[in-house]
Design goal:
By secondary structure, this protein is an all-beta fold. It has no helices and 30 strands. The protein has strands spanning about 10-15, 25-30, 40, 45-50, 55-60, 60, 65-70, 80, 85-90, 100-110, 110, 115-125, 130, 135-140, 145-150, 150, 155-160, 165-170, 175-180, 185-195, 195-210, 215, 225, 235-240, 245-250, 255-260, 265, 275-285, 285, 290-300. The strands form nine sheets. Strands 4, 7, 10, 11 and 12 form a five-stranded mixed beta sheet that branches. Strands 23, 25, 28, 29 and 30 form a five-stranded mixed beta sheet that branches. The N and C termini lie far apart (about 150 Å).
Length: about 300
């Protein structure tokens, strides 16, 4: 008997003897296990959570702890499992920016750990998002539009309904993009959501009609000259700002014509004279401001020898 001082496996030769003699030798195997070690706490010394949000935290130790003990209460809403070392629950009270200090220890058959300290900080929940920005937008039919919705408190998604025709919405990024196709006043419902709730606001969109077209001759003056029998220089009518869909010309010299879609005047004059030509552009809002242009066509004079 005795107290082993060194762990390991030992083979011991033994024999038995009496008055007759000594028997055959045998072997005795003795295994000395290491002395159990007390656990050392290895988990992080702090944990943070928020009121109303589920919290789960596992305490760890090496060697493995078979039991845990804690001194002092946990924040309201949390519980402690002394077998697994698990802290869990849904906090109901914030620690107001301070740390909630808890003394704890891990235990196994080798003893108990040195006392440890766990700091718990429970913050207040985030507020529901608050949508910011302009709540009234002026748009125009045919003009591209883009605007990104923004909100406080880290929104996780957006919703927008009732936008003017031609506009689309990205619920993840909050971007409203597109080109309005219909004039009028529209009221859209815009929502921003996070884990604490949802906020809804009304946004107004005033979509103005496309303006009537104003036209001009691109790269030329408003007076043109040509000669009978000679091809007239191709001249292009350009829309100033109203995005004309077609063009009108009245009073062109004989032999000249206007392509109403391509807005090109071309041809070969057949009669001399001075012509005052009426030009205009048209879109869905009607004709624009007219333009009067003078065409001077000279006769094709041939001089003799």
């Amino acid at each position: 008997m005795g107290v082993p001082t060194l762990w390991g496996t030992y083979k011991v030769a033994i024999s038995a003897s009496n008055s007759v003699g000594t028997g055959p030798e045998g072997t005795l195997v003795i295994t000395v296990a290491p002395h159990p070690q007390a656990p050392v706490i290895s988990s992080a010394p702090s944990v943070a959570g928020r009121v109303g949000e589920s919290l789960l935290y596992n305490l760890d130790a090496s060697p493995v702890a078979t039991a845990w003990s804690m001194r002092g209460p946990l924040p309201a809403g949390l519980g402690f499992d002394t077998s697994s070392g698990k802290i869990s629950g849904i906090p109901t009270t914030a620690t107001d920016g301070a740390d909630f200090i808890i003394a704890l220890a891990a235990h196994n058959n080798g003893g108990s750990s040195r006392p440890g300290v766990l700091s718990l900080r429970i913050g207040t929940p985030p507020a529901a998002p608050e949508i910011t920005g302009w709540f009234h937008h002026n748009l125009r039919v045919g003009n591209p539009f883009s605007y990104q919705l923004r909100a406080s408190a880290s929104p996780t998604s957006f919703v927008a309904t009732g936008l003017p025709p031609g506009l689309s919405f990205d619920p993840v990024t909050g971007w409203i993009t597109g080109t309005p196709t219909q004039a009028g006043d529209f009221t859209a419902s815009v929502r921003a959501r996070n884990i604490r709730g949802m906020t809804t606001v009304r946004w107004k969109f005033s979509v103005l009609p496309r303006p009537s077209p104003d036209i001009y001759f691109f790269g030329t003056t408003q007076a043109f000259s040509g000669r009978v029998g000679e091809a007239f220089p191709r001249s292009t009518v350009k829309d100033y700002e109203g995005k004309a869909t077609s063009f009108i010309a009245r009073g062109l010299p004989p032999g000249l014509s206007l392509d109403p879609a391509a807005a090109v005047i071309s041809g070969t004059p057949t009669a001399s004279g001075t012509y005052k030509v009426f030009l205009n552009g048209v879109n869905e809002n009607g004709p624009g401001w007219p333009l009067w242009v003078v065409f001077s066509i000279d006769p094709n004079v041939t001089f003799g020898p």
